[in-house]
Design brief:
It is a single chain. This protein is mainly alpha-helical and 155 residues long. The chain has helices at 6-15, 19-22, 37-70, 80-116, 131-136, 144-154. The protein is flat. The two termini are 37 Å apart. 17% of the residues are buried.
């Protein structure tokens, strides 16, 4: 268990005013203990920290990508190797920015689910996602079974 600072606990209470009530409704799988307020507070604190970190990193990465795109023709000359290297660098930076945006979107979605009291419920089956799964990956929106079905269809 992670120690939550007083400031973080206050931020969580402000961000999720109904959490103490909602946590009692978060479903669990057979054999699991009910969610405790402390467990959900820890996940919420982690998600809020991730959100802040991702927003900062995304701001820096967006600026770097913008600079890279703006200066993409400078210094490349007519050398195809230089042009290819620059294109690869732009592609890598773009992939990084897109991945960060996706992760930030997943993080915001998880925070919204906590806020709405729908956290821990599979978005496909409406069954419990499972505490162990959410503690390992707090952004999870699908139960293990629903995720497996999704991956089989996509494979």
């Amino acid at each position: 268990m992670t120690k939550i600072s007083t400031a973080t606990r206050a931020a969580i209470k402000h961000e999720f005013p109904n959490l103490a009530r909602d946590v009692k409704q978060f479903p669990v799988r057979d054999g699991e203990e009910p969610w405790t307020l402390r467990e959900v507070e820890e996940l919420a604190a982690l998600l809020l920290e991730d959100k802040e970190r991702l927003e900062r990193e995304l701001h820096v990465a967006d600026k770097e990508l913008s600079d890279l795109l703006r200066n993409s023709g400078d210094g490349a000359g007519d050398d195809q190797a230089d042009y290819g290297s620059s294109a690869l660098e732009r592609e890598q930076e773009l992939t990084l920015v897109n991945n960060m945006r996706d992760l930030l979107e997943q993080t915001n979605h998880a925070l919204d689910r906590i806020r709405k009291g729908t956290y821990a419920t599979c978005e496909v089956t409406a069954l419990p996602i499972g505490k162990a799964r959410l503690q390992a990956f707090p952004r999870a929106t699908l139960s293990v079974e629903a995720k497996a079905r999704e991956e089989r269809r996509g494979a």
